[in-house]
Design brief:
The structure holds 2 protein chains of 2 kinds. Chain A is mainly α. Chain A has helices at 2-47, 55-77, 80-94, 102-127, 131-139, 144-174, 186-197, 200-229; strands at residues 234-238, 247-251. Chain A has a two-stranded antiparallel sheet. The radius of gyration of chain A is 24 Å and the shape is flat. In chain B, helix 4 (114-127) crosses helix 5. Classes of the chains: A mainly alpha, B alpha/beta.
Chain lengths: 258, 245
C-alpha cells in the first residue's frame, strides 16, 4: 500500500521536524495559557473591585476599567492570525525592519489573546461566587483584598478550571496560525515536510493525529487536576462521646446529616 | 447610666426611591440582649446590615461608643471586627474547613498567631458543640451545624457585639432548637447581642428588651414580659395576634 509506505517514510525520515514542531506547539500553548491566565486574573480582579466613593479614585477606576474593556473587545474581536501579523510586522515597522525573535513573539501573541478571554472568564468566576461569601468576609472585618485572597479567589480558581482547560486546548490548536509569521510550530513543520515530500494528504493527516493526541491527553490530565482541586469527599470526626480519641471517617455519599 | 455601645440616631435608609428605614433611634447598652421583631419587609434586617455597614446609610448616624462610624474617620474593618454578624444563610467560607473558618478571620484581621487563633477557635467550637467536626467542610454539614459554626466564628473574634440576622429562619424546624440553645447560653454569659428574629419565645424569654419595628420605624419597645403580655400599640397587637394563633 502506497499510503502506509508514505506515512511510514514521513515518520521515519522527518520525525525530528515533527518532534520539534510538537515541542514548540506545546511550549507556546502552555506558557501562553499560563501567562494569559495571569493577565486575566489581574484584569478580572481589577474590574470587580467595588467603585470607590471618592471622586478622584472612582474616575481612575472607571478609566482603568474602560481600558481593560477596550483590550478585551479588540483582542476577542479580531482573528489571532491577523493579530500575529500586525504585532510582528508592526514591531518591525517601528524598529527599522528589525523583527522580534520568533518563539517569544509567538508566546506574547498567544498570551495577550488568551488574556482577553481569561479576563471575562475570571470576571464571570468572581461574580458567580455567592454574594454571601463576600458579606461573610466583610462582616468579620476583612478588607476587599483580604476577602479576595482568602475566600473568593480560591473558589474562583476551582470554578474556572474547566474554562481554563478549554482555553489551553484551543491554544494547542490555534498556535497553528503562528505559521504566518514563521514560528516553527507543528503546522509550520508539516508545511515544510509537505514541500519536501509532496505527500500532502499523508503529512497533514499525521499532524492531525498528533494534535488530537495532545489535546486529548491534556484534557484527561486536567480532569484529574479538577478532581483534586474539588477537595476530598470525606472528613474525619475527631472524638466521640464514648471515646475521646476516636477518629471516624465520614464520606460524602454516607452523609447522614440534613 | 451605662454607656451605650451602639447608638442609632435618626437612621434613614432608602433603596432607590423606596424608604426602608424612616428614622430609627436606638441605644444598645453593654451586656444587653435586644430582640428585634416585626413583619417581613419592615426594615429590621436592613437596620442590622446598616449597623455592620454592609449597607450605606442614607442619612442619620451610627455611633460606636459615642464615635460616628459613618463619617469615614474610623477604620471600618476594625469596627466590623468588633460587631460581627451571624447571617440567615450562614455565609461560612466554602473553601475552608470548619476550623479554618474560625481561625482565618483571627489571623487575617486580628493578626493573631496561628496557635493562639486555633486554641481560641477550638474553645468556641467546643462551646457550640462542633469541635468534633473541625475537619469537615461547610457543604458536608446540616444547616443547624453550619449556623453553630458561624456563631463560633463570630465568637472567636472576641467581639463587643454580635448581630444575629434571623439566624434560625433558614433552618429545618428540628434544627432551630440547637441553635437557639447556643444563643440562650451566650445571652446568659453577658454577651451584647442584637437579634433580629421571628422566634417569639426566644424574644420573650431570653432578651432584656424587645424592639418592634413596623414600616421602618420603631413602633414599640420595652420589657419583653410586658410587651408580649400587653402590647400598647394596635400594630403590635395585630402582629402578635398573628403569631400567637
Amino acid at each position: 500500500m502506497e499510503f502506509f509506505q508514505n506515512v511510514l517514510d514521513i515518520l521515519t525520515k522527518y520525525y525530528p521536524y515533527l518532534l520539534e514542531g510538537l515541542g514548540y506547539t506545546m511550549l507556546i500553548a502552555l506558557t501562553g495559557t499560563i501567562l494569559g491566565l495571569l493577565i486575566g486574573l489581574i484584569t478580572g480582579i481589577v474590574k470587580t473591585v467595588p467603585l470607590s466613593k471618592r471622586g478622584g479614585v472612582r474616575f481612575l477606576q472607571k478609566l482603568i476599567n474602560f481600558i481593560i474593556s477596550c483590550y478585551v473587545e479588540i483582542f476577542r474581536g479580531t482573528p489571532m492570525m491577523v493579530q500575529s501579523m500586525v504585532i510582528f510586522w508592526g514591531y518591525a515597522f517601528m524598529n527599522g525592519g528589525e523583527t522580534l525573535p520568533l518563539i517569544p513573539a509567538g508566546i506574547f501573541i498567544v498570551s495577550i489573546n488568551t488574556g482577553a478571554y481569561m479576563t471575562e472568564i475570571v470576571r464571570g468566576g468572581i461574580i458567580s461566587v455567592d454574594k454571601g461569601q463576600f458579606e461573610g468576609a466583610y462582616s468579620v472585618g476583612m478588607t476587599h483584598t483580604q476577602a479576595m485572597t482568602n475566600v473568593i479567589i480560591p473558589q474562583v480558581m476551582r470554578n474556572i478550571l474547566p474554562s481554563v482547560s478549554n482555553e489551553f486546548v484551543i491554544n494547542i490548536k490555534d498556535t497553528s496560525v503562528l505559521n504566518v509569521i514563521g514560528v516553527m510550530e507543528l503546522y509550520f513543520m508539516a508545511n515544510k515536510i509537505q514541500m519536501m515530500t509532496w505527500n500532502i494528504f499523508e503529512t497533514y493527516l499525521i499532524i492531525c493525529v498528533i494534535y488530537f493526541i495532545m489535546t486529548f491527553s491534556v484534557t484527561r490530565i486536567l480532569r484529574v487536576v479538577e478532581k483534586k482541586l474539588a477537595g476530598s469527599d470525606s472528613y474525619t470526626i475527631c472524638g466521640s462521646q464514648s471515646d475521646p480519641d476516636a477518629e471516624i471517617h465520614v464520606k460524602k455519599e454516607e452523609k447522614v446529616f440534613g | 447610666m451605662m454607656e451605650s455601645v451602639i447608638s442609632l440616631k435618626n437612621l434613614k435608609k432608602s433603596f432607590d426611591n423606596r424608604e426602608i428605614l424612616k428614622g430609627i433611634d436606638l441605644e444598645i447598652k453593654k451586656n444587653e440582649v435586644v430582640s428585634v421583631i416585626g413583619s417581613s419587609g419592615s426594615g429590621k434586617s436592613t437596620m442590622l446590615r446598616c449597623i455592620n455597614l454592609l449597607e450605606d446609610v442614607t442619612s442619620g448616624d451610627i455611633c460606636f461608643y459615642g464615635k460616628s462610624v459613618t463619617g469615614g474617620d474610623i477604620d471600618i474593618n476594625d469596627y466590623r471586627s468588633k460587631i460581627v454578624m451571624v447571617f440567615q444563610q450562614f455565609n461560612l467560607f466554602n473553601n475552608m474547613t470548619v476550623l479554618d473558618n474560625c481561625v482565618r478571620p483571627q489571623t487575617v484581621v486580628l493578626k493573631r498567631s496561628k496557635e493562639e487563633a486555633k486554641a481560641n477557635a477550638l474553645k468556641y467550637l467546643k462551646k457550640v458543640g462542633m469541635a468534633e467536626y473541625i475537619n469537615a467542610r461547610p457543604a458536608q454539614l446540616s444547616g443547624g451545624m453550619k449556623q453553630r459554626v458561624a456563631i463560633a466564628r463570630a465568637l472567636s473574634m472576641n467581639p463587643e457585639v454580635i448581630l444575629f440576622d434571623e439566624p434560625t429562619s433558614a433552618l429545618d424546624p428540628e434544627m432551630v432548637g440547637e441553635v437557639l440553645d447556643v444563643m440562650r447560653s451566650l445571652a446568659g454569659e453577658g454577651l451584647t447581642m442584637i437579634v433580629v428574629t421571628h422566634e417569639m419565645a426566644f424574644a420573650r424569654d431570653v432578651s432584656d428588651r424587645v424592639i418592634f419595628i413596623d414600616e421602618g420605624v420603631i413602633c414599640e419597645e420595652g420589657n419583653p414580659k410586658e410587651f408580649f403580655a400587653s402590647p400598647k400599640t394596635e400594630r403590635a397587637k395585630a402582629f402578635l395576634s398573628r403569631f400567637l394563633q
